[in-house]
Amino acid sequence: MTSVSENPLLEASFLQRLQRLQLLVRRPLPGQWKGEHRSPKRGYSVEFADFREYSPGDDLRYVDWKAYGRLDRLYLKQYVEEEDIYVLLLVDCSRSMRFGEPTKLLFALQVAAAIGYIALCRFHRVGAGLIADGNVLWMRPVRGKQSLVPLLRFLGSPPEAQSTLLSHSAKQVVNSWKHRGAVYLLTDLMDQEWSEALRTLLSRRHELTVIHTLSPQELHPDLMGDLLLVDSETGETREVSLSASALKLYQRALQQLRDSASALCGHFGGNYLLADTSQSLEEFVLREMRAKGVLA
Fold first, then answer.
1. What is the CA radius of gyration of the chain?
2. Which whole-number Å values give the CA distances from 169 to 186, 214, 273, in the listed order?
3. Contacts of 48 (CB under 8 A, 6+ apart)
4. What are phi and psi of 192, to 5 degrees?
5. CA–centroid distance for 28 within its chain
6. 107 FRET partner, CA 20 to 30 A, in 66, 145, 155, 184?
7. Is the confidence at residue 115, as pLDDT, over 90?
8. Which residues, in sequence order, are bridge partners of residue 78?
């Protein structure tokens, strides 16, 4: 098994390619500093947004004098405000994520690091949370490309964890992370309460992107015969007889899970992506994420 500590999360040559990308966030989100993303606030960019009636104290430079000549009333031109956004990277560190080669956890941390670096290059504020046993280990928001090193250091040291308790962790996130923004959740969704967790995150009007991280053995199992299955998180065992029909039932249940997660995210304006860890990091980030409209 390839451990996280044995691998750099991002190669230097890959960083150069990431610098040309940007996050595609569809909804206006409030920021703190001048940036490149459309804000719900009204500001002074070149893009016109709306009119509103003049109020005493308003800047007369923005009065529409042509409208005053026609209507004999003062209106102000309002323009789109462009600000930075808050980006939150959430990575499921449960034991089931340590399955596969490379492990799902390593792949998820690499994707999170890539998203974080793209955001830092665009001067967004990037925070991170490592989810383990119902708790969230936090990294406070940072800004600017020079913050890549502390971000990689944080993501490169995931905690040992038994389970996710995803729903409990999601409640911690919404109670602790007060910034509405773009949230990226990287998880295998192997938690009975995954839908409740997503609903909790979506309830704060974040733009949520779920990156469903699965190994090729989970996507296309080829096991047959009598087996003893062991739950890596609970240690529970179950004897099963796998046949072609049993594998079809498994595939059907997995597809239902994927469809449900995708529909839930889509209903609230979020995104759902399947990440097959058999593909390279470059292929997933540069091709899949761009094709799905998450990056540009």
1. 23
2. 13, 20, 21
3. 77, 78, 79, 80
4. -60, -25
5. 16
6. 145
7. yes
8. 50
The CA-based dihedral angle spanning residues 35, 293, 107, 259, taken in that order and rounded to the nearest 10 degrees? 130
Strand segments, DSSP code E, in 22-177 are: 34-53, 75-83, 86-92, 125-132, 135-143
What tens digit of pLDDT does each residue of 31-69 get?
666 666 565 555 555 566 667 788 877 777 777 888 888
Do 117 and 81 meet the contact criterion of CB atoms below 8 Å apart? no
Select from 251, 249, 230 the least CA-distant residue to 239. Answer: 230
11-15, 83-87, 211-215, 246-250: least confidently modelled range: 83-87
pLDDT in tens, 185-199: 999 999 989 999 999
Range list of H helices, the chain: 12-18, 65-71, 104-121, 148-155, 166-176, 194-202, 216-219, 244-267, 281-283, 289-291
Q: Could you tell me the CA-to-CA distances from 246 to 59, 189, 192, 229, 243 in Å, in that order?
A: 70, 21, 21, 14, 5
Token pair belonging to 291: 């094709």
Dihedrals φ, ψ of 173, to 5°? -60, -50
The dihedral over CA atoms of 107, 113, 116, 122, expressed in degrees to the nearest 10, equals: -110
The rounded percent of the chain whose pLDDT value lies above 70 is: 89
- Start-to-end CA span in the chain (Å): 33
Mean pLDDT of 21-40: 71
Q: How far apart are alpha carbons 117 and 114 in whole angstroms? A: 5
Which tokens hold the place of 170?
């999601």
